[in-house]
């Protein structure tokens, strides 16, 4: 956003008008032009790709509600998941259609948990592993975020965040409770325990260089 340079300090136009008299000789606003937004598609240099498979959520075959058994001609994707999270496919389709229910980054040289598969993708000292036996609904979305809000249009800044004075992120508010569930954070997300800094995210997109220039 556009801002002002006042005695060497960069502030927003709103802050300038609320603090100073624009006609004051001692507090002149030297306009600081806005910087175009930068879309960061791949800040870590690696794309993780997955192939969509299986049936839609509303169409997928499930175990019988009373017996917990798959219909004839099908088998459960996992014997470790609860009935509500177990889906069924023909034996020939299990490998291609059964959903991934958990993804983790394991710090080297730690050994992956049981029933997890190492796919040989590395990010620094971490290894990507996945499982179809974790008792959960399928993985559908990833976010680089502090704590995902239940309202996807909201964003909560980490308490230690530091921003360029004219970043729009400074105006973002913390997550607010849902009017339907009264929950503030989206509990469907699981922390991958792979911390990243703002520098890690912004530097590959040349954000730091743009701000310095």
Number of domains: 3
Number of strands: 9
Percent of residues in helices comes to: 10-25%
Please state the average pLDDT score.
80
Number of helices: 4
Largest sheet: 3 strands, antiparallel
Specify Rg, calculated over alpha carbons.
24 Å
- Helix and strand composition category: alpha+beta
Strand content: 15-25%
Structure description:
The mean pLDDT is 80. The chain folds into 3 domains: 1-34, no CATH class; 61-131, no CATH class; 141-213, no CATH class. The protein has 4 helices and 9 strands. The strands form 3 sheets. The chain has a 3-stranded antiparallel β-sheet. Strands 4-6-5 form a 3-stranded antiparallel β-sheet, with no helix packed on it. The protein has helices at residues 13-19, 94-97, 198-202, 207-212; strands at residues 3-6, 9-12, 30-32, 61-62, 75-76, 87-89, 102-107, 117-123, 126-131. The longest helix is centred in the N-terminal third of the chain and has 7 residues, at 13-19. It is α+β, with helices and mostly antiparallel strands and 213 residues long.
Q: Top keywords for this entry?
A:
213 residues; 3-stranded antiparallel sheet; 17% strand; alpha+beta; 10% helix
In terms of topology, how is this protein built?
Blueprint: E1 3-6, E2 9-12, H1 13-19, E3 30-32, E4 61-62, E5 75-76, E6 87-89, H2 94-97, E7 102-107, E8 117-123, E9 126-131, H3 198-202, H4 207-212
């Amino acid at each position: 956003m556009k801002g002002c340079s006042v005695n060497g300090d960069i502030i927003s136009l709103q802050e300038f008008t609320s603090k100073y008299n624009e006609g004051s000789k001692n507090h002149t606003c030297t306009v600081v032009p806005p910087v175009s937004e930068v879309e960061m598609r791949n800040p870590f240099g690696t794309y993780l790709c997955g192939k969509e498979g299986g049936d839609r959520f509303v169409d997928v075959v499930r175990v019988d509600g009373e017996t917990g058994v798959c219909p004839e001609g099908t088998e459960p994707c996992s014997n470790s998941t609860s009935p509500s999270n177990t889906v069924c496919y023909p034996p020939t389709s299990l490998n291609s259609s059964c959903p991934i229910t958990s993804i983790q980054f394991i710090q080297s040289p730690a050994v992956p948990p049981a029933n997890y598969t190492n796919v040989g993708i590395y990010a620094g000292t971490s290894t990507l592993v996945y499982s179809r036996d974790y008792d959960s609904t399928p993985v559908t979305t990833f976010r680089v975020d502090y704590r995902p809000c239940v309202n996807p249009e909201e964003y909560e800044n980490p308490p230690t965040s530091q921003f360029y004075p004219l970043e729009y992120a400074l105006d973002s508010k913390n997550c607010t409770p849902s009017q339907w569930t009264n929950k503030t954070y989206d509990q469907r997300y699981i922390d991958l325990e792979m911390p990243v800094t703002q520098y890690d995210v912004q530097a590959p997109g040349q954000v730091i260089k743009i701000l310095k220039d």
